[in-house]
Amino acid sequence: MRQLVLFIGFFIGLSSVFAQGGTVRGVVKSNEDGNAIPFAKVTIVGTDKFAPTDIDGLFSIPNVAPGKYTIKITSSQFTEFTQEIEVFKDATVDLEVEMKLGKWIDQVDIIWDDKEKFTDPDVSVDKITNADIKKIPSTGLPDIATYFQSMPGVISTGDQGGQVYVRGGTPIQNKVLLDGMTVYNPFHSIGFYSVFETELIRSADIYTGGFGAKYGGRISSIMDISYRDGNTKRFAGTVGLSPFVSQIMLEGPLGKAKNVSYVFTGKASLLEQTSKALYPYINDGEGLPFNFYDYYGKVTVHGDQANKVSFFGFSFNDQVTYQAISNLKWNSYGGGSNFIFVPNNSELFMKGRLNFSRYDILLQEENIQDRTSGILGGEMAFDFTYHLPGKSKLEYGFGFNYFETKFKTFNEVNRAIEQNNSSIEGGFYLTYRHVTANRRLVIEPGFRIQGYGSVGTVTIEPRFSGKYNITDEIRFKVAGGYYTQNFTSTTSDKDVVNLFYGFLTAPENYPTNFVQPDGTSKVVNNGLQKAWHAITGLEVDLSKKLKLNVEVYYKWFSQMTNVNPNKLYDDNIANFEIDDALKKNFIMESGTALGGDIVFTYTTKKFYLWAVYAIGKVDRWNGFEYYAPVFDRRHNVNLIATYNFGKNETWEITTRWNLGSGLPFKQTNGVYEKPVINNTSDDYWNSNSTELTFIYDDQNNGRLPTYHRLDVNVKKSFAPEKHKNLKFEIIGGITNVYSRKNIFYVNRVTNQKVYQLPIMPSLALTMKF
């Protein structure tokens, strides 16, 4: 602990070295509920000094020359704030600002957006709020799951239980965070809903590749979600109801001092109860047997300025029965604490967290033994941000994790694969962002040191991102790095719906040699998964309202682990001479993902258009041959449009059209009748039978038909004049407007086809008070 205090004190002391003037810092909040306002624009009028607020509403502007100034703060949906301040040398001006709700300011946002893009690399990241989530058509109530699936480079394999793959990575290679805590399964079995409450989301940063050193433990993508705190001003809430889901959120201050707030949310599916009556044409009248329940609660104690501490707990549950296929259920629960500490007279912000969570999953299928998996994880971590003169900054942090995993599955020949482990991990990261004086060049080098106790390995992971502002309208950017992770998830080709993702730490029972595509053999030292990313792109402001973003990416997954489909023997002394390929639980693989995205964004006060085209190619090498994984979708298009109209723009129509080329699948090469010998009596032909047996293609050489779907929502908002805080929203929607029959599953024996969801009208009502 003494070393930790000295370490923190050293960086706090740097302020005296860099300071040439004073510092203006503070926190920006809403006067409606006392919550922080992220991405507000803080400017010192008459100078080139400016800064955005972070997700907690914090900002810091160092090295301000002594004198009297006017500080101006703007944010969409809030009235502009100004205040006179006086700055002294080597002193800090602390501000706690509350902004009033106002009107959407188009021109201010556009001007600021240009400023921010000069100083932030912004490579392969989409920074959104709950207002952005509501621009996407929803089936019932808005949810981030629908937004995530519409992003460039993101592939979903289905409406019913489809998994989400990001630029060639599998779901286990995507890290999802809620206020810094890992969420092991963020999406429910029906693909429209996540475990997150939309009304609570303050911000979400979604990285599809090339993410910085702050994030470790995953090799493909990051979804970093931040929740707001409860209302410190008054008791408030939201109630929502649709045929798919019901939800409630309650919040308010605890006590008269109003420095302690709470928020509680609950969400439950209604599909099993409503679908038989509302959608009798689905699943032969059996309805949609999806059930989930989500609960979350948080209490926050607010101190002076931005200092605060929060305590939270959650429980997420899911259960589904697929018609004649499988039963799956999972549950997750946990809790923890987060805090923010701002030292006096310093440019340093300190954030910390302590949490734990438990996740268990069970898959049951006919004629196949149950598959189970579970993980218990605990974390303690600290993050520091130090603001330097000239828009530069230093970020660093460290953390420790403890995991227990249990896992049991069966491969294609029904051989058990079982592993129970515990592990300790530790990590340290450092990132430095430098912005040149003319703001033409931004470079952000960094590195991460990650220690994995289960395999006795320490990795050094370099990361880099940068941007060159060619002109005020054209910006070139790059990012890349080295990434590792300890977790592995295994699936079976027998899983009709690819939902069962068992968690286990880096496996131990794997071949010690891996044959590479060039025929050479590589020694495998551990079971970690490893990847390199390289991304380049171009941002172009075609006009003040029309933006173009183009990115090209390459991911090389140099080492991955997978369940061994060819295991026939137990790995013991008696089978010593048998090849590892026939007795090890796991095999090693490598692979690549190559592609690009083109995104057009057009934004005005009334109209929003987002057009995305993504092209990609994913392959895997298993030591013997190349194959296309089931998520290798070559072409993907998303068109999203939102239009506000009517008196006071209380009407809104949103549409989304998604088109995706066919996904790979394993074809049937032939069928034959295999004799089954029960006895050798004289009546041989009548006392014995035959069994229908399929001969499959070696790999996924077939392609399913093209997927496409159109969704439309119409929303009406209104508020009674006599009740200031009471607001209503009615959302009418149609999912799959022209009832496209997209393939979900084909029974190879009966040739029965099961399709994704057909046309589904819905109506939702939300009340806020």
Quick summary of this structure?
It contains 6 helices and 47 strands. With 769 residues, it is mostly beta strands. It has 3 domains: 2-103, Immunoglobulin-like, CATH 2.60.40; 125-666 and 704-768, TonB-dependent receptor, beta-barrel domain (Maltoporin, Chain A, Beta Barrel); 668-700, no CATH class.
Give an account of the 3D structure.
The protein has 769 residues and is mainly beta. It has three domains: 2-103, Immunoglobulin-like, CATH 2.60.40.1120; 125-666 and 704-768, Maltoporin, Chain A (Beta Barrel), CATH 2.40.170; 668-700, no CATH class. Helices cover 7% and strands 54% of the residues. The strands form ten sheets. It has a 22-stranded antiparallel barrel. The protein has a five-stranded mixed sheet with strand order 8-13-14-11-12. It has a four-stranded antiparallel sheet with strand order 3-2-5-6, covered by helices on one side. Strand 25 and strand 26 form a beta hairpin. The longest helix has 17 residues, at 2-18. The protein is globular and about 90 Å long. The model is unreliable at 1-8, 11-19 and 104-113 (pLDDT under 50).
Overview features:
769 residues, mainly beta, Immunoglobulin-like, Maltoporin, Chain A, 3 domains, 22-stranded antiparallel β-barrel, 5-stranded mixed beta sheet, 6 helices
How do the helices and strands line up, and which of them pair or pack?
Blueprint: H1 2-18, E1 22-30, E2 41-44, E3 50-52, E4 58-64, E5 67-74, E6 81-87, E7 92-99, H2 106-119, E8 125-128, H3 130-133, H4 144-149, E9 154-156, E10 164-166, E11 174-178, E12 181-182, E13 201-207, E14 221-227, E15 236-241, E16 245-253, E17 260-269, H5 271-278, E18 290-302, E19 308-322, E20 326-341, E21 348-365, E22 368-387, E23 393-410, E24 416-435, E25 441-452, E26 457-469, E27 474-485, E28 488-490, E29 502-504, E30 513-515, E31 521-523, E32 529-541, E33 546-563, E34 586-603, E35 607-621, E36 626-627, E37 635-645, E38 651-660, E39 664-665, E40 668-676, H6 684-687, E41 689-696, E42 702-703, E43 707-718, E44 727-735, E45 743-746, E46 753-755, E47 760-768
Parallel strand pairs: 1-7, 11-14
Antiparallel strand pairs: 1-4, 2-3, 2-5, 5-6, 8-13, 9-10, 11-12, 13-14, 15-16, 15-47, 16-17, 17-18, 18-19, 19-20, 20-21, 21-22, 22-23, 23-24, 24-25, 25-26, 26-27, 27-32, 28-29, 30-31, 32-33, 33-34, 34-35, 35-36, 35-37, 37-38, 38-43, 39-42, 40-41, 43-44, 44-47, 45-46
